Amino acid sequence: MSIFGGRTEEPASYDAARQLREAVRSEMQEADEETVRIVTAVAGLLATVAYADRVFAPEEVEHIRYSIGRIHGMTPQATTAICSVLRERLAELSTLHSHTFARELKELTEPHVRVEILDVLVDLAAADGEISLPEVNQLRQITSSLGLSQQDYNASQQRHRDKLTSLL
Q: Which fold has domain 12-167?
């Protein structure tokens, strides 16, 4: 029941995160709930970085497919299913749920795992040949939300320094 007597259904934004988690759970049936939460959060942050500059470049799509495909137990079919949800709900996932995804990872993973995830996210931002200022800002925000330091971000970004558009 709504406190003001208005609509009682959940907003569509909740459905995007739930749809992603259900896709991960469906494709990783042997995984425990913690693994499903981690994979969902990683996929959600990949969507967040890919959409930071509001351009979902083909190179970014391919990098997301590659990154998700590297996860233990992920089949090509599972990767396709998860990427379909990301593409379909990209704007909602990237703008409304990034803090939730980062918080999940901070709670469920060790710092060295979060640094590895940050490296994957920075690699994604660089996949189209440049890292834009909106992508830098998003990555810095994610770094902080993951409980990582500016030094962690700098070390990850250093591998792609030549692609930073804010320095050009």
A: TerB-like (1.10.3680)
